[in-house]
Amino acid sequence: MPEAKKETVTLIDNTTGKKFDYPLLPGTLGPKVIDIRKLYGDTGYFTYDPGFTSTASCDSAITFIDGDEGILLHRGYAIEDLAEHSDFMEVCYLLINGELPNKKQKGDFVHHVTHHTMLHEQMQWFYRGFRRDAHPMAVMCGVVGAMSAFYHDSTDINDPRQREIAIFRLIAKMPTIAAMAYKYAMGQPFVYPLNELSYAGNFLRMTFSVPAEEYKVNPILEKAMDRIFILHADHEQNASTSTVRLSGSSGANPFACIAAGVASLWGPAHGGANEAVLLMLKEIGSKEKVGEAVKKAKDKNSGFRLMGFGHRVYKNYDPRAAVMRRTCHEVLSTLGVKDPLLDLAMELERIALEDEYFVQRKLYPNVDFYSGIILKAMGFPTSMFTVLFALARTVGWISQWKEMIEDPGMKIGRPRQLFKGAKNRPFVPLSQRG
Ligand code: SDX
């Protein structure tokens, strides 16, 4: 069978007339990439792509997004199927190992996660160093980073066994750390994990139970929480995942890399949007004011954007938002919660999706648009929304980190720049600086 002809693209430098051919590499799905690794050596030029709108930073087999079609696959499985038929522990196994687990594999995986949920007892003193009104994401940045100071026996990135233990520790301990951040803010005692509970059930109990009374996990909330974790688990090379990869490329330990991911996720343009959506809806206040908000969002000078709308990749409805929207209605109606913010959100979506500005720019609701309304109905304060996103996204971050570390071709990430600063100039002594 003759070898398939290698596809190339040719770059012509019109200033010199020189031609350069670069390989066109196909993936299994999605756009091909132009392999420009030799470009600087050939041409002396860098490419220029602030925000990486046209740049593939790596190859990966974990998550595929088709932004035009609104498709999200994790290891080939559609997010709608995983949200409907799977659970978060299976999705964690899938993201990390590449296949859905069989019964035994799932049992072993859940057993390992369950038996890593407790936090080193001394770590609770970190919380006491924070002000009670510290934003829980600030606490998460600090405490997750501090894991490097407690779990030294799983920081050697070149030891597969240590990598595996670090992965279990991160997935297992994030709910405990997150729940403790909430308890500390509330001035309530920390609650230890209970091994008989599910991952989501354990988290709900550590968050909402108090020593003064029995706490029974509500199965509706447990299922909704598990599904929300699935919807946030991974999302290709987004800002926080790219932060984790770049941190990991220097050989930093996995706990430090995940702490970097938490910090990046906090931004309102990224994972902080779920908190910003609720604040925006509360600020709009009523359906009557929706038109005014949409008008403001279209005015570049207002500095106001419809939080939870738009996406770098999705130019169609974010498939996660569709599942989240359905779950929102299910949870609120089952709980008998009538939240005017849900009606407000739906009216905002309806008006925005009919407005030429949003249609032309293909701005649709993203994963953050509805999540906050469910989380509010479940009893979480707005300040905890991004913490929950970080909790769920930890498995995505660490799966992408693992994929990179196990790649023999891994190199430290070191982008260049288009320099626009001062040219070389002689030093001026202080006495002559006027
Ligand atoms: C997440 O990358 C991921 O995968 C992220 C994420 C994940 O799972 O990891 O999906 C999670 O971060 C979802 C996004 C949450 N952020 C928000 O909801 C914040 C509001 N949205 C935006 O700020 C914005 O849409 C971004 C940041 C999400 C995407 O920005 P881009 O791709 O850089 O697009 P852009 O800012 O260049 O906007 C393109 C145009 C601009 O107008 P023009 O200059 O072309 O006239 O659309 C406008 C923007 O002004 N626009 C908006 C808007 N989002 C974009 N106008 C009003 N409201 C908005 N929300």
What can you see in these coordinates?
By secondary structure, this protein is mainly alpha-helical. The protein has helices at residues 39-43, 79-85, 88-97, 103-114, 124-128, 136-146, 160-186, 199-208, 219-231, 239-249, 254-265, 273-284, 290-298, 319-335, 340-354, 356-360, 368-377, 385-405, and strands at residues 8-13, 18-25, 33-34, 63-66, 71-74, 77-78. 49% of the residues lie in helices and 6% in strands. A hairpin with a 4-residue loop joins strand 1 and strand 2. The radius of gyration is 24 Å and the shape is globular. The mean pLDDT is 96. Bound molecules: s-citryldethia Coenzyme A.
Number of helices: 18
With strands numbered from the N-terminus, the spatial order across the biggest sheet is 1-2-3
User: What structural class results from the helix and strand content?
Assistant: mainly alpha
**Rg measurement, Å:** 24 Å
* Uncertain ranges: none
In short:
This protein is mostly helical. The chain is built from 18 helices and 6 strands. The chain is 49% helix and 6% strand.
Please describe the structure with a list of short key phrases separated by commas or semicolons.
mainly alpha, binds s-citryldethia Coenzyme A, 6 strands, 434 residues, 3-stranded antiparallel sheet, 18 helices
